[in-house]
Design a protein that fits this description.
Layout: H1 9-24, E1 29-30, H2 32-46, H3 49-53, H4 56-64, E2 77-78, H5 80-94, H6 104-112, H7 118-125, H8 130-141
Parallel strand pairs: 1-2
Helix pairs in contact: 1-2, 2-4, 2-6, 2-7, 5-6, 6-8
Length: about 150
Amino acid sequence: MRLATRQTARLTRVFLLADQEAARDDAARVGTAHLLLALVRDEHEHGGRLADRVDVGEVRAEVASRPVRTGGTGRRAWTPAAVAAVDVALRAAARAGGEPVVGVRHLLLGVLADEADDAAAVLRALDVDVADLVAGALADLGADVAVLR
């Protein structure tokens, strides 16, 4: 499945927001923390579950406190972890059956799939229960943890 033909308009916007956040950090590449921050921004505008648990400013401050590689100009590449997160999102949508559409919940699952990665670390630093967020996203999709494999 090709992502470009299956992503929602909100997901497209989240990708643009993630690039903006990487630019704000002067980061050379878009990472999972930037994707997380973009998801939080999107959720605050749409009243989503993530918005109830985290504040955009707190996430931005935590992301900014982490070391970044500078020097990025123009279009930014994505870190391997960010690419892997999108791959998890694609697989989760594909396992849903029918004509899969990849949305923000799928991306949230992808971003949080690796507990050792930056996005999960940012949330843990803010005392957010990552497992609870994953469970909520799965419930929103009517899926179970098997979609993450």
